Records
---
Amino acid sequence: MNVALQEAFIAFHKNEVPIGAAMIYENIVIAKAHNLTETLNNITAHAEILVINLTSNFLRKKYIRECTLYVTVEPCIMCAGALFWSQIGRVVCGASNKKGFLYSGVKLHPKTEFLSGILRDQCKNLIQKFFIVKRKELN
């Protein structure tokens, strides 16, 4: 989760919503990314989507059952759908997200293990700080 949190800090400093992700395969970080929706002018450039694409390219396959995704904030519905179709083995989240998949009723793949709350406070504090700063900029 520390790698994902480092990615979230990078996003924060790029004025992106500070969400970071890291993909682990055989105990090695094989991909990491942060949100790039503003930088790329692409609403689908979420950290999770980017890291899934990097992983699939690296492993040269679309199903990544043997991988674990660490993400600083619970995935949105779009990202949860991509994770479902990738049949990822495990998803580990930091902070919860009231607009995330758990609150929407969307499910991950039945064989995907899900764990939440890892470095919760650090992940939550970073995203809260980002939106506090954004609100001050608007005033």
---
Amino acid sequence: MQSKEKPVMITGLERIAAKANNETKVQFTSLAHHISKDLVRGSLEHMPKDTSAGIDGITRDMAIHDFENWIQDMMNSIHRMSYKPPEVRRVWIPKPGKTEKRPIGVPCVADRALQRSTSTVLSAIYEQDFLNCSFGGRPKRGAHNALATLDEIISGKKVSWVLEADLKNFFGTLDHKWIIKFVEHRIADPRIISLIKRWLKAGVLEEGKVYTSETGTPQGGSISVLLSNIYLHYVLDLWFEKAIKPKLNGEAYLVRYIDDFVVCFQFRSDAIRFHKVLKKRLNKFSLELEPNKTRLVEFGRFASKHSKRRNNKLETFYFLGFTHFCTRNRKGNFMVGRKTEKTRFRRSLSKLKDTLRKIRHWPVKDQAQILNQILRGHYNYYGLAGNLKSLCKIYCRTELYWRKMLSSRSQKSHVTWRKFQKTKSAFPLERPKLSIPYKDLKKYVML
């Protein structure tokens, strides 16, 4: 007797994804109805409970509590193309290792939920279009995937030169006309286009004044990340794959994480030619390379052999918070070494110091709990194969600063190392641990 298999339910977004995959040039004319109440509510509930409120002061919990009171008006305004997003609250956060700050936009919670929902619908289409070289702001394609893929390319492909590149004020210089033009390659639903245009034109509130901009998109909303990936998909990824690679003499590979990217080359001449045309290509779309963060370095297993003959030390390059350098494993074979980049390391130490100053008078048990949360977060990101030494450094510095803070609680509170060891035995700190050891690194590769 044959068993009857249960029919598999296919969601609307899965049908859209299948159609986008099969018909690579089709325009989608009816998408707004997929932005449903349930999707918006799910996006709202997915936000962290402590997420920052926008200019209206409404928190995530308040928005969920009053959900039924505001959701229908939002849905109606989307379909009437009359939705007007509130201004974005601008805050300034320090750049890693620098005194200057960069702006972050904080949309209202309800608007953020709508952005996330719209991004979910559009991602069903664009995930079929985006190339393997792009990471960040995409499902299951995070920083660790980008780093593991780069490691695989440099270690296993014919790579001798690496162009490290960074875009100057990327989110602040995106051209609105080009954004809409790129989106319209695939999206022909006027309600979705209207939403995107209004988000781009939404003002930024800072110190009681509203500023509007003809370029750029505020960092902070889900839609900004998706739009930036769409922009660079057409400006950089497709152009590199279709127009550049066929004209090169050797192999070349691009790895991009949102607006940070590196390009690996077999030949120096190819790298120099690409660097020249890259500037022209970016200028056409109102983008510019940051000269201080863009450089060509000799790197890879072939470069390592040549440098050994010449007695030259190879340069390093930086990508996603790591310094990458050429080294060898225990068998004497070439491998890519990595360690926490200096400015990121200093930023982590600064965060630990600031936290310890704030909690120095808390109970020791609570202090240990907070410190372990910070250490776990650091290990989870920087615990990539080959970086154990940097993790041990952060652990030792944490021990040092914790003892110092415990000793500064009063004039009579000096803590000897012996006493501190007893405290640490009762309330142990999280030991350094690789989140992705070498044996698991290949699982993160996406080629």
---
Amino acid sequence: MDPLVSVDLGSATPPYEQIRSQISALIATGALAPGDRLPTVRSLAADLGLAGGTIARAYKELEAAGQIQSRRRAGTVVAPAAPGGGAQAPAAGVPAEVIGAVDLLISAGREARLSDELLLDLVRGQLRRTGTERRLPDGKP
């Protein structure tokens, strides 16, 4: 999983939030399936050149959202899908057309040389403009 997570230290978004967001996206798209092990806090911190507390905070927020579980001897794993395809359900709950549209958006953004942060800001802005942005229970968009 490590190569799929990166941190832009020049970004206004805090590193823990970048990590939380990327892991959440990997779970949502099915790149990380229920039961998949995540790197240890120490291992991921070393790989990304960050403090362990930064990784621990990202993991803590993911665990609070029900997306991952920390088990004493088994380490940290992706949580099982919520029964009935709840908010934490992986890609099985996301229509293929939506994933395809997101892939097209990402490709167009890459071709236009937009940063990931700008691309996300554009999506959030459009959601707000159309009045369809939904907030998660923790208050985050």
